[in-house]
Design a protein that fits this description.
The protein is an alpha+beta fold. 23% of the residues lie in helices and 46% in strands. This is DUF2125 domain-containing protein.
Length: 340
């Protein structure tokens, strides 16, 4: 049977339709990108104007929107924030770059170039540097839903000329993550290889530290609900679940966990578990930092094995805090400061 004479024409029509759809899709994508780019530039301009109206000057020279066609973001040569009200503040940093995938515009990633110089009221000017600083943020219907900040090789030094830029502290790596979780706020922090580097600093092993906690009902803090409130106002009658606060130096480590609240006076009430490995080594480290505490540190280290129970190679002690007073059993240990 002879091939149908309509087959080539049908193939050409299908090819034409496919080509037309590709052109229309490309046109729609281009139009959407330039529309979003215009909106982004406009929102940035309005945000800077609103900040200026509240007394904060934000500078982002040579700002441009980039990423066509599959990404969208902005970049500028530097970033500075200056506030000159009753609590003057100034911060300046290197180039900033942000971007989002065009198909997921609610998730933004960014990088900031070193150094960051901060000069505020109540503390000396600081010079903060890093090898790499990256941040990400996800927005949803209620505003900011999750953010993360990760830095490699952060270093903090004094920025005053008279100090010669004296180094204070550095680390191999640091992270902070926060997210909404059913109306609550989850927070996780991590530092690896932390070291004191100022002159006459005690000779200590590198410090690894991490925190993992949930603050009940605080998810809206990511949307600005915490702005302008004191610590006492933020935490009054609010439950906090501390899954882990871990400090580790070489073989010695201490981990605190528990549930607690703050009362209207900013005082802590709760129950905790303190797990300690190598208490004698911890006593030695405490003594090297604060020689006047040598007798107390050694005494506590000697009493720990008798006061606690052994679990996974660590000594675990139950602590109770009432109105800010910390006690192990019936023996008071000290008083925690109140929130302000």
């Amino acid at each position: 049977m002879a091939p149908s004479s309509d087959s080539p024409s049908k193939a050409r029509r299908v090819l034409f339709v496919v080509a037309l759809l590709v052109v229309l899709l490309a046109a729609a994508l281009s139009g959407a990108w330039f529309y979003l780019a215009s909106r982004l530039d406009g929102e940035l301009t309005r945000a800077i104007e609103m900040a200026r109206a509240r007394g904060t000057e934000v500078e982002c020279p040579n700002r441009e929107v980039f990423g066509f066609p599959f990404r969208i973001g902005f970049r500028c040569d530097a970033l500075s924030v200056v506030r000159s009200d009753v609590r003057p503040f100034k911060a300046s940093a290197g180039a900033v770059r942000t971007a989002a995938q065009i198909y997921q515009p609610n998730r933004i990633v960014g990088e900031l170039d070193s150094p960051l110089r901060i000069d505020g009221q109540g503390y000396p000017p600081l010079d903060i540097r890093w090898a790499l600083a990256q941040a990400s943020a996800t927005f949803w219907t209620e505003g900011l839903d999750h953010f993360s900040v990760v830095t490699d090789e952060p270093k903090v030094a004094l920025a005053q000329p008279a100090s010669g830029g004296e180094s204070l502290v550095d680390a191999d790596h640091s992270e902070i993550h926060a997210r909404r979780n059913d109306g609550n706020l989850d927070i996780f922090t991590l530092m690896k290889g932390g070291r004191l580097t100022f002159s006459d600093a005690p000779d200590l092993p590198a410090l690894d530290a991490s925190t993992d906690l949930t603050i009940d009902g605080a998810g809206n803090w990511l949307s600005g609900a915490a702005r302008g409130l004191t610590g006492r106002e933020l935490f009054a009658d609010r439950h906090v679940s501390l899954r882990s606060f871990l400090l580790k130096m070489d073989k010695a480590n201490a981990e605190l966990s528990g549930d607690f609240t703050f009362d209207d006076e900013g005082q802590v009430n709760g129950k905790f578990q303190l797990a300690i490995a190598e208490p004698k080594e911890i006593a030695r480290l405490v003594t090297s930092v604060a020689p006047k505490l040598k007798d107390i540190a050694v005494g506590i280290a000697s009493a720990l094995p008798m006061a606690g129970r052994q679990q996974d190679g660590r000594t675990v002690i139950e602590l109770r805090v009432k109105n800010g007073v910390v006690a192990a059993g019936i023996f008071p240990i000290g008083k925690l400061p109140s929130l302000r």
